[in-house]
């Protein structure tokens, strides 16, 4: 009985050790989609991480692993043909109206990938 218990415990410990290496222990999560700015006022559509971590405190983490950007209609940013001034998981997103052939950015929404086990509220 003792021997079986030792084997079971050993296997559990081994799994616990393996899990982070397999990535399962740090399963990443995405925040909800956030749209805090509009290209209709100001120089473009500006969704800066520094602003969003402040505005959505406890929801957007300080150092996201990834950023994802889509138009408000759900078209991935890289499919729109527009030029982006900033598109960074550590900086956020900026589309400048004056860099577009059309003279106007589309309205974009962003979301960030954070660690699931952090204190941020994630979906
Ligand atoms: Ca926007």
From TrEMBL:
<dbReference type="InterPro" id="IPR039675">
    <property type="entry name" value="CILP1/CILP2"/>
</dbReference>
<keyword id="KW-0325">Glycoprotein</keyword>
<feature type="signal peptide">
    <location>
        <begin position="1"/>
        <end position="23"/>
    </location>
</feature>
<dbReference type="Pfam" id="PF13330">
    <property type="entry name" value="Mucin2_WxxW"/>
</dbReference>
<protein>
    <recommendedName>
        <fullName>WxxW domain-containing protein</fullName>
    </recommendedName>
</protein>
<dbReference type="InterPro" id="IPR025155">
    <property type="entry name" value="WxxW_domain"/>
</dbReference>
<keyword id="KW-0964">Secreted</keyword>
<feature type="domain" description="WxxW">
    <location>
        <begin position="30"/>
        <end position="114"/>
    </location>
</feature>
<dbReference type="GO" id="GO:0005576">
    <property type="term" value="C:extracellular region"/>
</dbReference>
<keyword id="KW-0732">Signal</keyword>
